Amino acid sequence: MFSATDDLTNLGLEFLDAADNLVAVVTSQTAWPKTSDAWLPLQSFRLSLSNIQIIRGGLEGTLGKALMPIAARMLLEDGARWEWLLHSADTASPGQALKTLVNDGAHHRDKISKSLQSDGVPQNLINDLLGPATEIPVPEHGTPSLPAITELLNLGYSNASEVRSAPAMYSVLSQFVHATPISNWHIRRDIFPTLTAPAFAISLESAARGFERIALITLLLAGVSRETLDEPLNALSERCAQITTLAALYHFLG
To answer: Which residue has the higher pLDDT, 193 or 35?
Structure first.
């Protein structure tokens, strides 16, 4: 199967330039909120930047492109979670939507911890790996949980065509996380390490759309003013829209 042309890679690099500009604007702020409410969204934004660095490595050739779908999946999923929070805040009781999001994080933490324990990893090393996540309280029995991932993705990434493409993209990206035969088919070994055009396009679009959602919502929740964010976020959203339009020509998912 063919590879994507350079125009898609170049758009991806322009998106990263816009992301770098956003980070520069945000980090230039002299007064960051000190409240506990700002901690969680800021941590999520910083995590998204780690995944963006993997995308950068794939685009610049310093990392194998086969890593891009894994980072893109995390960005797509986290962006959907924050979009759900934004929608739910209007209908849930005060603080309930954020509590649900925190509980979801605690469930993921416990799942990771149990998996490492079963592999014989000492608890003190597990705690070091999990870092501040160990301080998240254990969810109370019967507390509300997040909707299914398909519902989250459809809510977070609606488009003008009304084609619900995000769940299909998430499914493709998941093939790389779990190393299925489908993912192996989409790795171009003749010019390793790269991806087929559809997988590359899905990865880049998912990463761009996910990061754009995360940046918008988490930074506003963290207390960065809308006036400060307007210009860099508009530039980021414009690049994201350009990627989405061109990527559709390669993956045909709408």
So the answer is: 35
Grade residue 76 by pLDDT with cuts at 50, 70 and 90. very high
Token pair 């995944």 is found at 51
> For residue 145, which amino acid is it?
S
The whole-model pTM stands at: 0.87
**Cβ(27)–Cβ(221) under 8 Å?**
no
Taking CA atoms, 135 is separated from 39, 130, 216, in Å, by 13, 9, 26
In sequence order, the β-bridge partners of residue 188 are: 194
Phi and psi, residue 202, nearest 5°:
-65, -40
User: What is the tens place of the pLDDT at every residue in 7-22?
Assistant: 899 999 999 999 999 9
What CA–CA distance (Å, rounded) separates 224 from 218?
Answer: 9
Per residue in 175-223, pLDDT (tens digit) is 988 877 776 766 765 554 578 888 999 999 999 999 999 999 999 888 8
DSSP string of 153-205, one letter each residue: HHHHT--TT----HHHHHHHHHHHHTT-HHHHHTEEGGG-SEE-HHHHHHHHH
Dihedral angle of Cα 191, 9, 155, 177, to the nearest 10 degrees: 20
Cα angle 138, 153, 115 (rounded to 5 degrees) comes to: 40
Give helix 6-27 / helix 39-60 axis angle, nearest 10°: 150
What is the amino acid identity at position 163?
A: V
